[in-house]
Amino acid sequence: MLFGTIVMFILYIILKYILSWIKYYNSLDSRLGQSTWRWSYDYPVIGERDISDLDDKNFVRLRRKRNKIITIMYSVVFIMFILSMSLLSEILIIFLT
Fold it and tell me: In order along the chain (97 residues), what is the average pLDDT of each group of 10 residues?
């Protein structure tokens, strides 16, 4: 249980770090918006990369970086959810036995 708590705390620090990167990328261009929880796409093309790279390369590359970081954020949140369920079950086992 102690190990799980330590890992949860480390994941929380990583999540705060990732959220600060997302806020940083949001502040670089106003077209990205202020949302931290959603990906942004302009012109999705099935089977290929965004064709909008021809229009504004700097914005599209910034958007792709931000989308990758948002994907990492969702992965960390998912791992934290699974770990919290494990910690909760360990606490319930202690109290119920």
Answer: 91 96 90 78 57 71 89 95 94 90
Q: What angle do CA 23, 28, 34 make, to 5 degrees?
A: 45
Task: Using alpha carbons, select from 10, 8, 66 the residue that is nearest to residue 39.
Answer: 66
Measured CA to CA, the distance from residue 19 to residue 76 in angstroms comes to 11
User: Comparing C-alpha atoms, which of 60, 62, 65 is closest to residue 45?
Assistant: 60
- In this structure, are residues 59 and 26 in contact, taking their beta carbons and an 8 Å threshold? no
Q: Name the pTM for this structure.
A: 0.78
Whether the CA torsion 36, 29, 71, 10 is positive or negative: it is negative
